[in-house]
Amino acid sequence: MKKLLPVFAFLLISHILPAQQSPEEFLGYQLGANFTRHADVVNYFKQVAEASPMVQYQQYGKTNERRPLTYAIISSEENLRNIEEIREKHLQSAGISQNSSSAGTDKAIVWLSYNVHGNEASSTEAAMATLYSLITEHKDWLQNTVVIIDPCVNPDGRDRYVNWYNQVKANPYNPLQAATEHHEPWPGGRPNHYLFDLNRDWAWATQVETRERLKLYNQWMPHIHVDFHEQGINEPYYFAPAAEPFHEIITPFQKEFQTKIGKNSAKYFDEKGWLFFTKERFDLLYPSYGDTYPTYMGAIGMTYEQAGNGRAGLGIVTDEGYILTLKDRVAHHFTTGISTVEVASQNVEELSDQFSNYFKNNDNGDFEYKNYVLNGSEDQLTAVKNLLDRHEIKYAYAGQQRIKGYSYTTNKNESLNASENALVVSSNQPKGKMVKVLLEPATKLNDSLTYDITAWSLPYAYGLDAIASDRSVSTISKTVTENVNNIPNPSGAGYISKWGSMQDARFLTDLIKAEVKVRFSEVPFSSEGKQFDRGSLIITKSDNRSLENFDQKVVELANKHHRQLTAASTSFAGSGPDFGSPEVKLINQQRIGVLKGDRTSSLNVGEIWHFFEQELEYPITRLDTDYFEDTNLSQFDVLVIPEGYYGSIFDAVVLNKIKEWVKAGGKLIAIGRAAGSFANKDGFSLKSKEAATSKDTAATGNLVPYNQRERESIKNTITGSIIKTKVDNTHPMAFGYKDTYFSLKLDSDSYQLLDNGGYNVAYIQQPEVVAGFVGSEAEKNLENSMVFGEERMGSGSIIYLIDNPLFRDFWENGKLFFVNAVFFVNNNKFRL
Fold first, then answer.
1. SS (H, E, C) 720-743
2. Burial 252-279 (b: 16+ CB within 10 A, else e)
3. For residues 392 and 799, what is the distance between their CA atoms, to the nearest angstrom?
4. Does the structure show a pLDDT above 80 at 374?
5. How confident is the model at residue 690 (pLDDT cuts 50, 70, 90)?
6. Which residue, among 394, 423, 404, has the nearest Cα to 467 in the 3D structure?
7. Whose CA is closest to 84, among 107, 113, 50, 62?
8. What is the DSSP code string of 105-124?
C-alpha cells in the first residue's frame, strides 16, 4: 500500500509540473495560514485545470448572491478523453440510463463535497490540497478512478464567515476561547443566503444550491460520496463507519465498505498519532443529509467531521489545553480524502458490481409495498411530481380505479378510489429503494437515539390521500396539459377562484401586488351553478372600478398561475352570501414585519424569509432584536415572531408594547418555541403543559444509572414525528383543509387548549402517532393540547403555531395554515 506524503510536503513540489502551481505558490501563503476567499479558490481550480490535462473544471450553477457553484473532474488523460463514455456506461450498469446494460464499469467514481456548512471552512482549504496531490503524487490511482471535487457547496455561507473572520482576527491570531475571533455574530456562516442548512436539504431540494447540484449528481451517481464537516473544538475527528440507527434498506456491503474505508483512514491517523472516533453520533437514517441521500442512491455515503467549526479560527485552545490550528484541520481532511480515493482505486470491481446490484429491484423482494398510489388535488399532485422529477424518480398515472392497500389517512388496510390524475410510484424501478425511503408510511427504527427527525413520509408532507399497496397496480398513458385559458368577461360582476393550495396563495399575492382588491368568503356559497368552499377568492368589478384594465389584469394573472376562474354574471349568490355580504371580507395588502437577530432561530428566520421572498414573492420587513424595543409597530399589520428564546428581549415593557399593538388591531404570529415567550404571562391566555414525572425524584433521588441517563431522558422527547390532529376547518386559519391534519411535531413543548376567547384550530385530544419516535411521557403530555390556535385581544389577534409549518420548507401541507394566518384570520377591518 502506497504511503501518503505528509499533507504539506507535496505543496513544495514544483518541479513535477512546472506549468501548474501548488496552492501555496498560487495563493502566496501556506494552506492553513489564512482562510481563502471563495473567488480565490475558484481561480486556483481554474489555474490547475488550464495547466493539467487531468482536470476538467466547470460551473454547474450560481448561488443567490451570484457566486459560482463549481466542480472538478480529476482522472487520467485517457479517462478524461472518454469521460462521457465512462459516465454513460456507469449509469447503464445501474439501469438508470435509457440505454440499459448489465455491464459494469471498470472505473470507480468518487465524489468529494466540501464546505456545505460555510463556517466549517477548513475543508475547502483541504480541497485545494487534495486536487494538487491527486495530479502530482497519485496519478496511478487515476488510471481506474474518476474523482469529482465540489470545493465549496455553500459559497455564500463560506464568504460570510471568512470575510467576518478576516475583519476581526488578531495578528497573530489569538487562541484564547474568549477572543472576539472565536465568537461569530448572528446568524453565523453555517447556512446559505436564506439561512438554510444545506446538509438537511438534499431530499427536499428547496434551495438553489441543492437543485443545481442534484442535476449534476444524477448525471454521475457516484460509487462513493464524502461530505466534509466540522464539529465542536473538543472532538478530534470522526469518520465512518456510521452510528446506529441505519435505515433498513442500507445493504451489508455498504456497511462493510464504510468500515474498510474507515480502517484505512485509521491507519494513517495512527501513524501520525491523531485521535479519532467512529460508530458514534452520526447515524444513517434521515434521508436529506450529504451521507444518507447518496447512500439511498446506492453510494457509500459518509460524513467526515473535523474538530473546529466557526469557533476555531486559525487556532484555538481546546478544553484539553492544546492549540487546534487550521493547519491541523486541513491536514486531517486532506488525509481522509486521499485515503478514500486510495481505497476506491483498490476495489473498483467490487464497487461496480455491488453498485449495480443495489439497483436491481425487479422482483420487489426488498419491499413490503410494490406501489404507492398518491391521490389528491391537481395542485397537490403537481407539487409532489416536481419533487420526484428533481430526483428523477419515475411515476405513472392510475386512472380511475379502486385500489386496496394500507391507507395513510386511516392507518389501516382500506380501498381508495383513485382519480384520473392519481400517481402510481412503483418500487420496481432503479431508484426503488429511495422510493421506499421517501414514501413508506413509517420508517422502522432500530434505535430511538437519532441525530435528526424520524418521520418525513411524503404523502403526509404533501397532504395526499395515499395507499401503499403490496399488489400490482395498472397504469394508463396520460398527456398532461397545464394550460388554462381564461378570457375576460367585462359585462359580469367579477370572478371567483377556488382556495386550497400554495398555487392559489401565489395567485392571491400576485393580485395584491397588482393593486387588485380581493375578497374571500368565510362561508360556503354557490354561483353560476357551482359550489365554492370557505376561503374562495372573489374579485369584484365593484371593488376595482377605478383600476385600469381590471378584467385583463385578473385574467392574465390567473392564466400565469394556471388558475381556472369562474366568471360571475351577478353578485347575487345561488346559495350562501352574496358578494356584498359581511361574510365576504376584503383582504388587506398586509404590511409584514419579521423579527430576526440574537435570540431568534436563524433557521426559522430563513424559512420565513425564503417563504415570502421565493414562494409567495411578497415583500416583508425584517426587524432586528437589537432595536425592536424602539420600533414603531403601527407601521405593520402583521408581526411574525420566529422560533427562539427571547428572554430579556421580551421584558415587561416590550410585552406591554406588543399587547397594546395587538389590541389596536395588530396580528402577531408566534412560531414554535416563540410561543413560550407569551405562555403563562399576564394578559395572554396561552398556558404551557408541564410534563408529568413518573416518580418524585425530589423525595427518592434520581437512581437511574449514569450509563442509562441519556436513554432514560428520551421518554420526555419527540424527535420529528408525524401526529394526527383534529382541525376546525370553519376557522379562517384552516380554510382549504379537511377536518384532520397530519402535523410534523418537532419537540415535546405542549400547551393547553385555549379557553374563553380563544380558538383551537388544530389540536390533539388522544395522541395518535402515525410515524416517528415519541417518548412515552411526552406522548401523555400531548393529550388535550393545542397545535394551532388564535387568541383574540382587543381588535387584534395572537396566532400560535406550536408546530412550525415552514420547517425546512418541505412540509408542503402546512404552508397554507401560515398563509391563512397572514391574510385571512381576523380580517374584520380593511385598511384604506
1. EEEEEEEECCCCHHHCCCCCEEEE
2. ebbbebbeebbebbbebbeeeebebebe
3. 39
4. yes
5. confident
6. 404
7. 107
8. -SSEEEEEE--SSTT-THHH
CA proximity to 26, closest of 7, 60, 53, 49: 49
CA distance 511 to 139: 60
E strand or H helix at 785, and its extent? strand 785-793
**Count of helix runs (H) and strand runs (E) in the chain:** 23, 34
pLDDT in tens, 319-373: 999 999 999 999 999 999 999 999 999 999 999 999 999 998 765 566 999 999 9
Contact 364, 112 (CB under 8 A): no
- As a whole number of angstroms, the distance between CA 793 and CA 696 comes to 39
* pLDDT (0 to 100) of residue 19: 66
Total residue count of the chain as it appears in this document: 832
Give the model confidence (pLDDT) of 257-304 as tens digits: 999 999 999 999 999 999 999 999 999 999 999 999 999 999 999 999
What pairs with residue 70 in β-bridges?
59
How buried is residue 118: exposed, middle or buried, by Cβ count under 10 Å (0-12/13-18/19+)? Answer: buried
The residues, any chain, with a CB within 8 Å of residue 40's CB and separated by 6 or more, are 27
Strand partners, 526: 531, 575
Distance of CA 354 to the CA centre of its chain: 30
Strand partners, 243: 283
Contact by Cβ (8 Å): 32, 330:
yes
Q: What is the DSSP string of 602-616?
A: HHHHHHHHHIIIIII
Amino acid identity for residue 335 in this structure: T
- Residue 165 C-alpha cell reads as 473572520
Tell me if residue 558 falls in helix, strand or coil: helix
DSSP state of 830: -
Tell me how far apart the alpha carbons of residues 522 and 558 are, in angstroms, rounded to a whole number.
Answer: 22
The 3-state secondary structure of 371-416 reads: EEEEECCHHHHHHHHHHHHHCCCCCEECCCEEEEEEECCCCEEEEE
Q: List % helix, strand, coil for the chain (3-state, nearest 5).
A: 35, 20, 45
Grid coordinates belonging to 650: 421580551
| Amino acid type, 810 | F
Q: What does the pLDDT look like over 552-583, one tens digit per residue?
A: 999 999 999 999 999 999 999 999 999 999 99
Which set of grid coordinates corresponds to residue 116?
A: 456545505
Spacing of C-alpha 677 from chain mean position: 26
Distance between CA atoms of residues 311 and 831, nearest Å:
48
C-alpha distance from residue 485 to each of 531, 537, 564 (Å): 21, 18, 8
6 cis-preceded (ω within 30 degrees of 0): no
Q: Which of 98-112, 263-277, 736-750 has the lowest mean pLDDT?
A: 98-112
How far is Cα 583 from Cα 523, in angstroms, rounded to an integer?
Answer: 7
Cβ neighbours for 219, distance < 8 A, ≥ 6 positions apart: 87, 91
Is the separation of the CB atoms in 156 and 177 below 8 Å? no
152 touches 158 (CB < 8 A): yes
Q: Is 797 helix (H, G, I), strand (E, B) or coil?
A: strand
- Does residue 431 contact residue 393 with C-beta atoms inside 8 Å? yes
Question: Which has the closest alpha carbon to 432: 95, 89, 203?
Answer: 95
What is the full DSSP assignment across 464-510? Answer: -EEEEESS----B-------------TTSSEEEE---SHHHHHHHHH
Domains in the chain with CATH codes? 10-83+105-358 (3.40.630.10), 371-469 (no CATH), 494-585 (3.30.70), 592-688+717-823 (3.40.50.880)
Start-to-end CA span in the chain (Å): 78
Return the closest-CA partner of residue 423 out of 391, 447, 399, 406: 399
CB environment 135-153: b (16+ within 10 A), e (fewer):
bbbbeebbebbbbbbbbbb
